[in-house]
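It would be a great kindness if you could assist me with a short task in structural biology. The matter concerns a single protein, recorded as an amino acid sequence and a row of backbone structure tokens. Could you please explain, in whatever detail you think fit, how the structure tokens follow from the sequence? Thank you for your consideration; the sequence and its tokens are set out here:
___
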Amino acid sequence: MKRIKTFAIYILMVVGFYIFTMFITYVGLNATYKEINLRSVLPNQTAINLAQATTVNGRIYGEVTSTEENNLNGKYIKVEIYTKTGNYAGTKYLKIEGTQVNEPKKFAVYFTADNIRSYTIEIVDATEEIENQVKIATEAFKDIFTNEELKTYAIVTLVLILILA
């Protein structure tokens, strides 16, 4: 019976350490994000909920809303990011699809670029020229813009490897 209690204590210690590590990683990563600034006027049907960056990556969360006068389906959200010195760093196009009238549709842009401090957002019509620009921007900036944030489990794994090594 004593051996089972000892084993249970070890399991609880490992689980507690895992939860503590996850919490500290979450707090540590989110504490490094700083607000980034909008460089231009925000389009009427667009709202930005969160725009933050660290020294190596960032995220922009927002919403677009179609109206009866201006249906956004088939259009693109164009996001450009700029460094702290004002240099252009990249462009991302997000196609707007499946929006209902007067219902907000959420969007997210993730990027891995150094020292981003500002951004611009535009809504552009879908034309052949824009379609070509989308293809070119997608290929040119595929290493900057990602589809999701850094994976927490990758960071936790790295922390565990550093602790155990």
